[in-house]
Every structure is written in structure tokens, then in C-alpha cells.
From TrEMBL:
Domain of life: Bacteria
SUPFAM superfamilies linked: MFS general substrate transporter (SSF103473)
Membrane-spanning ranges: 12-31, 51-69, 76-95, 101-122, 134-155, 167-189, 210-232, 244-264, 276-294, 300-323, 335-354, 366-385
Domain annotation Major facilitator superfamily (MFS) profile: ranges: 210-401
Name this protein carries in UniProt: Cyanate transporter
PANTHER family linked: 2-NITROIMIDAZOLE TRANSPORTER, PTHR23523
Keyword match Transmembrane: yes
Keyword annotations from UniProtKB, A to Z: Membrane, Transmembrane, Transmembrane helix
Any matching Pfam family: MFS_1
GO molecular function: transmembrane transporter activity
Length: 401
């Protein structure tokens, strides 16, 4: 009995460590490129359009690949599916800096696809292995996601300088944490033969109102997140901040997200449902965005802080809903595939819409109206998704009736 208890504890520790290490790799493949995009453009002779494609493709493929994750999980088993994705991610990160532009686009698309698959499967593993602490674990790994994103955004350029201006080597470095994650993840796999999971019978989530509410919340908050990531420094520079301070503002915003990424799911777990926390998070996010665009310039750092605190909570609550709105790990994976697949496909076009609006009107306030309306949509969807219900319960109730 004692040996069995020790074995279970060791397995839980390895699973927890594996989840955190995989989560660490869910953003560096994206944010590291943005940090040295100008150098990549000069090195490969890319146009502005080429650079825009390079930054849009991984987010787009993140959304395209996400719905494939449940099927991959059923074929390989959820742990082996994650392992396959993180191993492929490591190889793609290692190879893509040393390819020509066409192959670089393919490598970047593979990076986005691997991230999409891992992001879909992690909530199901949390739901299965830590059912009593799903909200807390989701908050912790969301914080690790933000830490990875912020680290890659802030460290890639200094690494390039340390490598005598070689942007290729600075990007290649991010294959190392992916390799470490794959080794740790492989060490906790069950050596038994693969037992392919059978699809869980049930109605299509695309006909479930609650699933669509979760999906719309995920997608609309992601539009805000990627729009801020892509354009916040440019917006702040247009208001008079230096490029250094504008870049620091984005890094500060991302770092502040770590705190509310942990606190918001924990606080919501103490409440009857998640509506209040989601509403507060969206209000903070909208206020921070509008403050950065039209607020008094002397208070700009206050708005940056408010924005970071709001977006940390909005994203972590989106991931929390994927775990707690499903009754079992299989449904969690299906819901995650739907929400992230549709959501990140929407998010891929958010920065593009902002760029088009600014080019047409040459006024960031117009873009601010678009972001405010997006935020209000996220607020409506989030309040609906935050009710204490389970995906599929409506259909089950109708069937029983």
C-alpha cells in the first residue's frame, strides 16, 4: 500500500512537472519571432507583407490544427499525442531559422500547429488527473504560458546581440526548452501498449449553445490579446513614447498577466460560478486598451498595468472554462478543440483588421472602437459561458425528457 501511494505521488509530480514544461513552450515559438522580425526581414530581404504573413501564419495554423487534437488523442492516447507534438515542435524550432523563406513559412506553420495541439490536450489532462484542483492548475500553467511568452519576447534580442547579431541562433535556442519538455514528458509515459480510445458517443458540440458561448469567449478575448501583442508598441509610439519604452510597456503588460492568471481561476473556484470574475477581467481589459489609445499620456503606465491585469484573467478564465464546463476528459478535449480551433482562427485576423483600419483612417481611435466592440462581445459571451452548467447537459436533459 505504501509503495502504491509513493508511486501515485511520483506519477502526479511528474505529470504536474510535464504539464508546466509543455506550457512553457506554448508561446516562445510565436513571440521570439516578433522580437527579431526586423532583422529577419533584412536578412532574407522580406517585404512588409512577407513579414506580416510570417507573424500571422503560426496563429492561423494554431487554430487550424486545434480541432485535430481530439482525433490524434484517440488514435495515439492523449499523453503520446502531446509527446509527438512537443518533439515535432523541438525539431521545427531547431530547423526553421536555417531555411529559406518558403521553408521558413512551412516551419513556422508546423510550430503553430504543434502549439495548437498541445494547447487543446492540456486541459483534458488537467481535468483527468487533477479533477479537484482543475481551476488552480489551469491558473498555474497559464502563468507559465505567460512567463514563456514574456521570456521569449524579452530575451531573444539580447541573445541575438550575444551571438554577434545572428538572429538564426537566437531563434534556435528556443528548441532547448521544447527538448527538455519532451524528455520529461516521455519519462512519465505508461509503458503499456497503446489502447486507442473510442470516440465518446454524444451530440455534436457545434450544436451545443454553451459550447458556442465558451468558443466565442475564447475567440473574442484572443482577438484582443493578439491585437495588443501585435500593435500596442506601435500605438504607444504614435502617442509619443520611445521605441524602448513602448517595447517595455508590452513586456510589463505580459509580466503582470502572470499574477491574475493564477488569482482569477483560484478566486472563481471559491464562487458559485465564474460570471463575476469574467466580467471584471473584461472590464479591466477594455479600460486598459482604451486608456492606452485615448487616455491622458501622463497616466499611460497606469493603463498598461490595468490592461495586463485584465488580460491575464481573461485568458486564464478562458482556459478554465475548457476544463470545468466539460463532464469528462474526452469532452474537455473536444470542447478545447472547438473553442481554440475557431477562437484562434478568429484571433489570427485581429491584428490584420487593426492594421487595415489604421491604414484607412490613420486614427487609432477607430481601431479602439473595434476593440471596444470586440470586448463587449467577449463580455456577453463570457457571462453566458460563466454559468454553472456542463456542455451537453442541455441535450441530455432533452433526451431524458
Amino acid at each position: 500500500m505504501h509503495d502504491s501511494s509513493q508511486s501515485t505521488t511520483r506519477s502526479n509530480v511528474l505529470t504536474f512537472l510535464g504539464i508546466m514544461l509543455v506550457a512553457l513552450n506554448l508561446r516562445p515559438g510565436l513571440t521570439s519571432v516578433a522580437s527579431v522580425l526586423n532583422q529577419i526581414g533584412r536578412g532574407l530581404g522580406l517585404s512588409a507583407l512577407d513579414q506580416g504573413i510570417l507573424t500571422t501564419l503560426p496563429v492561423l495554423f494554431l487554430g487550424i490544427a486545434a480541432p485535430l487534437a481530439p482525433a490524434l488523442s484517440r488514435r495515439l492516447g492523449i499523453e503520446r499525442a502531446v509527446l509527438a507534438a512537443v518533439v515535432l515542435l523541438a525539431f521545427a524550432l531547431l530547423a526553421r531559422p536555417y531555411l529559406d523563406f518558403a521553408a521558413l513559412l512551412i516551419g513556422t506553420s508546423i510550430v503553430g500547429s504543434c502549439i495548437g495541439i498541445m494547447g487543446v490536450l492540456l486541459p483534458g489532462i488537467v481535468k483527468r488527473d487533477f479533477p479537484q484542483h482543475a481551476s488552480l492548475l489551469t491558473g498555474l500553467y497559464t502563468a507559465v504560458v505567460f512567463f514563456g511568452a514574456s521570456s521569449a519576447a524579452g530575451v531573444t534580442e539580447p541573445l541575438r546581440m550575444a551571438f554577434d547579431g545572428d538572429w538564426r541562433s537566437s531563434l534556435m535556442v528556443w528548441a532547448v526548452p521544447a527538448g527538455i519538455a519532451s524528455m520529461v514528458w516521455a519519462s512519465q509515459l505508461n509503458p503499456e501498449p497503446i489502447r486507442k480510445a473510442r470516440p465518446t458517443p454524444g451530440h455534436s458540440l457545434f450544436r451545443d449553445p454553451l459550447a458556442w458561448q465558451v468558443t466565442l469567449y475564447m475567440g473574442l478575448q484572443a482577438v484582443l490579446a493578439f491585437a495588443v501583442f501585435g500593435w500596442l508598441p506601435t500605438i504607444l509610439q504614435s502617442r509619443g513614447l520611445t521605441p524602448v519604452n513602448a517595447g517595455f510597456a508590452l513586456s510589463l503588460s505580459i509580466m503582470l498577466q502572470i499574477s491574475t492568471a493564477i488569482l482569477a481561476p483560484w478566486a472563481s473556484s471559491k464562487m458559485r460560478d465564474q460570471r463575476l470574475i469574467i466580467a471584471l477581467a473584461i472590464v479591466f481589459t477594455i479600460s486598459g486598451i482604451l486608456g492606452c489609445i485615448v487616455g491622458p499620456l501622463p497616466q499611460i503606465w497606469l493603463w498598461v498595468v490595468i490592461l495586463g491585469l485584465g488580460q491575464g484573467a481573461t485568458f486564464s478564465m478562458a482556459l478554465t472554462l475548457l476544463a470545468i464546463r466539460a463532464g469528462d476528459p474526452e469532452t474537455s478535449a473536444r470542447l478545447s478543440g472547438m473553442a481554440q480551433g475557431v477562437g484562434y482562427t478568429m484571433a489570427a485576423f485581429g491584428p490584420l483588421v487593426l492594421g487595415v483600419l489604421n491604414e484607412w483612417f490613420d486614427d487609432w481611435r477607430i481601431a479602439g472602437v473595434f476593440l471596444a466592440l470586440t470586448g463587449l462581445g467577449a463580455l456577453a459571451a463570457g457571462i453566458a459561458a460563466g454559468r454553472d452548467r456542463l456542455v451537453g447537459s442541455h441535450a441530455a436533459a432533452n433526451a431524458s425528457a
